[in-house]
Structure formats: structure tokens, C-alpha cells
Amino acid sequence: IEMAGDSRFPDVDAEGSENNEETEIVVNVGGVRQVFYGDNLNQYPETRLAELINCLSGGYDSIFSLCDDYDPGKREFYFDRDPDAFKCIIDVYYFGEIHMKKGICPICFKNEMEFWKVDLKFLDDCCKTHLSEKKEELEEIARRVQLILDDLGVDASENRWKRCQKYIWKFLEKPESSYPARVIAVLSFLFILISSVVMCVGTIPDLQVVDAEGNRMEHPTLDSIETACIGWFTMEYVLRLISSPNKLHFALSFMNIVDVLAILPFYVSLTLTHLGAKLMELSNVQQAVQALRIMRIARIFKLARHSSGLQTLTYALKRSFKELGLLLMYLAVGIFVFSALGYTMEQSHPETLFKSIPQSFWWAIITMTTVGYGDIYPKTTLGKLNAAISFLCGVIAIALPIHPIINNFVRYYNKQRVLETAAKHELELMELNSAEGKASSSKNELEDLAREGKEGPFYSSRLKVSHSDTFIHLLSEEKHYRTRLQSCK
């Protein structure tokens, strides 16, 4: 397209600069023609469409700064943009708000609004929610990609200790980084299982031994296995703590607190066994040790570190606090109402098991949750009718919030899979772009050498290396393209 002075374009009609309510412009966006009038466009004079009314007086330089092409015969402006998004954006001139159609990428729609110079405040709140969610997803993808790049990159300015610390952190925290790291993750998983099995097997009376005072204790073999597992957990935690980039964040992390709770009881009970007898009675020491041994069940939560499913379940429960609170509220109201009714209806029976309303809470809980131990049950006809209504209400109250909780779990699980795939695709795209850049630079060097007439052995070797470097040509340098992160595809 040539600018002013080209014979193909006649001079712009001066009447085109008139900015009144009868001004009419024709816009062609991606092959879709739209006719607009000045009274509508002038409501928002800062938008690109409103600027088209006044650009005719500025010549072709002003016109082509706003559009991709212009037909002076038809007085039609051409734009190479998304017509579907444009149909949504022009609603601002007629309704004062914009709704994004289903199926349009929120990030691309935001870019379209920026191109047409329409403020985001006109976007409806429901659509802003989708946009914020997509932004969060892109930020998460960028964070994952950056973490992978940080793992792959080596900073030459770092000293030997920093590089060693980074290697240990990758070795223990990122099993996907190398084959030895995966082996360590599998070993850690096996130690957790062995420790949990030993804790359970140690409570079997046939496998216990009797000490000199007649007290039962765990078998020495099981005790040795337990000590070896705790030694592994301790070494793993200390190495992870030393190599952690942010030690305060590491120490306050939930999973790391679980690790401490799984390790600490062993050392506290060991200390009480050897030193506590001097400070308190032996029976009190044994009770304290037994209480600490119960805390060993916390190590089963260490499995969540190696299971994406458990992590997804934890996140789904966090996102379902509202539904869980609703469930507890339903149950609390039902327990209070039906326990009070049961106590009132059962007072006429001489052998009633409902002694008080607080005591009836237990009956209402096991009835509404459909457990029904049978230790407390109604004996009158009205009491049985009240019990029937209570467990029917309990089934309904429990079933109502279950579906949103399941949806949260499925949504988060699918989202994590999509984010992982998107991060891998982004890395692949970056590798392709990098290979294209290297190949283009090699090609430019060869062209320079050919122009200078350098045909010696040096030129032949460079040519051979260049032809051996394979690359995929994506787009020419003159074209502007968007990465997967920007286009959200």
C-alpha cells in the first residue's frame, strides 16, 4: 500500500472530515461488513472506530495508522482482525456493555478490545471472571516454564556451593529431572510404606516381646527397621532444608511440617526413655512414649508428596470449604431439631434411652449419617417416625453438596494436566524458535562470506557445518507472531 501521492488513491474528500450525526462509515473486519453512524460512535470518542470519522481529513497517513486498508471509492475501511470478537465489542456502542461469546479465548478477546481502544471496564463482570481465571492459568504456565528453565540453566557467576545446593534440591525435590532422582523418589516412597507397615505390625500381640518388668514392647527387629526408616527421613529432611532456596518458606510449608511431626516423636521418645526416668516416674515415661508413638501415623501423609492424586484431593477440599460448611450447617440444624424431638417423644416410655437432649445428640448424629450403631434407639411410634424422617433428611443433606465437591476435584485435576501439557508445548516452541534463530544467523553468515568471495578451506568447513544443522522454519522475521502463552492455545 502506497501513501499520499500515489495515483491509485484519489484525494480524500474533504467532506469526510465532517463529524456530525449523519456521518456514515463502512467497516470490513475479516470479510464482515458493518455500517456505523456518527451519533453512535461519538458516544466513545477515544475508541478506534470513533477516530475513523475524523481521520479522513488527515490524509492517507492518518487513515492507514488506524486501519489495514482503505477503499476511497466505497469509503470502506478494512481490518484484518477477528470478526467474531468484533461483533461482541461493538455492543458497547448500542448497549453500553460487552459480553464475550462462549468459545472465544479471553486473552485474545482482551487483545482485541485493546486494539479497538475499548476500555475493559465495559466488559461484564461474568466475563471478567473468565479473563482473570485465564490470566491465572497463564501465570501458572509461565511459572512452571520458568522453573524448568531455571533447572536447565547454569549460572556461571554462582560459586561451587550454590551449584551443589541447586543440584541437591533438584535431586530430592524434582524426580522428573533425572533418572537417579526418580530412584530416590521411589526409595523414599518405599521407606514410607515400610515404616507404616512396621507401625501396624508392631501392635500385633504375637509379634511383641515381654521385657524384664513384664511389659509388652515391639520386637527388636521391627524396632531396628523403624530406626533405619527414621534415619532415612531425617537425612532427607536435613538435606532438603540445607539446599532449600527459601528456608523460611520451606520450614513453614504444610508438607514439611508433616515431615517434622513424623520424625520428631522418635527422638523425643528416645530422649524420654534414656533421660526421663531420672526426672519422673517410670510409668509416666511409658505413657508419654506411648502417646508419642501414636503420632507416628502422621508419616502416612508423607505419601502426598509423591502422589499428585492426593495433592489434587487436598486442593479440592480447600476449594470446597463453602460446600463443606454448608453440609455441616445442614447436619448441625438437623441434629439439634431431631434430637430435641426424639427426647420429647420418648419421655412417655418407661424404658426410654433418651435421658437428655445433649445425650440425644449422639443418636441424631449416627442416624442422620446412616451409621446407626443401635446403642440408642426409639421405642415409641412417634419416636420411630421421627427417626425415619431424620435419616431421610440426613441422606438428602449429605447428597446435596457432594456434586460440587466432585466437580472441584475433576476441574482441578484436568486443569493440572492442561497446565503441564501447555508448559511442555511452550518449551518445545521456545526450542523451535531458538533453533530457527541459530539457523538464520548461520545462513546470514554464509551469505556474507559468499559476497566477500571467501572460497578457501575455512568457507568449505563453515558450509558443511551449516548444511548439517537442521531447523524448522516457523515464520519469517517480517511477520509478527504470538507464542502459546500469548495466544492461550
From TrEMBL:
Residues in coiled coil: 415-452
One Pfam entry name: BTB_2
Keywords recorded for this protein, A-Z: Cell membrane, Coiled coil, Ion channel, Ion transport, Membrane, Potassium, Potassium channel, Potassium transport, Transmembrane, Transmembrane helix, Transport, Voltage-gated channel
Record-annotated Ion transport domain positions: 182-416
Predominant subcellular localization, coarse grouping: membrane
Domain of life assignment: Eukaryota
BP terms from Gene Ontology: action potential; protein homooligomerization
Topology in membrane: Multi-pass membrane protein
Location of the region described as Disordered in the Swiss-Prot/TrEMBL record: 1-21
Chain ranges of the Potassium channel tetramerisation-type BTB domain: 25-126
Bilayer-spanning residue ranges: 183-204, 248-270, 324-341, 385-406
Ranges of Acidic residues composition bias in the record: 12-21
InterPro entries, A to Z: Ion_trans_dom, K_chnl_volt-dep_Kv, K_chnl_volt-dep_Kv5/Kv9, KCNF1-like_BTB_POZ, SKP1/BTB/POZ_sf, T1-type_BTB, VG_K_chnl, Volt_channel_dom_sf
Function comment: Regulatory alpha-subunit of the voltage-gated potassium (Kv) channel which, when coassembled with KCNB1 or KCNB2, can modulate their expression and their gating kinetics by acting on deactivation upon repolarization and inactivation during maintained depolarization. Accelerates inactivation but has relatively little effect on deactivation. Coexpression with KCNB1 or KCNB2 markedly slows inactivation.
Assembly notes: Heterotetramer with KCNB1 or KCNB2.
PANTHER family: POTASSIUM VOLTAGE-GATED CHANNEL SUBFAMILY F MEMBER 1 (PTHR11537:SF171), VOLTAGE-GATED POTASSIUM CHANNEL (PTHR11537)
Family: Belongs to the potassium channel family. F (TC 1.A.1.2) subfamily. Kv5.1/KCNF1 sub-subfamily.
Protein name: Voltage-gated potassium channel regulatory subunit KCNF1
